[in-house]
Amino acid sequence: xxxxxxxxxxxxxxxxxxxxxxxxxxxxxxxxxxxxxxxxxxxxxxxxxxxxxxxxxxxxxxxxxxxxxxxxxxxx
Length: 76
Fold this sequence. Notes:
EC 5.2.1.8, rotamase
C-alpha cells in the first residue's frame, strides 16, 4: 500500500500532505505528515538514517521502525 502512495506522491509535498492527513496514524497527520525539524538522536535510528540519506524533495522507500512503517518526504 505504501509503495502505491509513494508512486502517487512522486515528490509532490501537497500530495504527501493530502495522503498523510487521510491515512497516517501518526500524530503528525494533523499537520499533513510534517514532523518539523529534528536533530540527530531524536528519531528511531532507521527513520533517522533514511531521512538523512534523502536529498530535499526525495521520498524514501518504505522504512520499517518499531513504531510502524513510514514514507518520508524530505523537505529541508
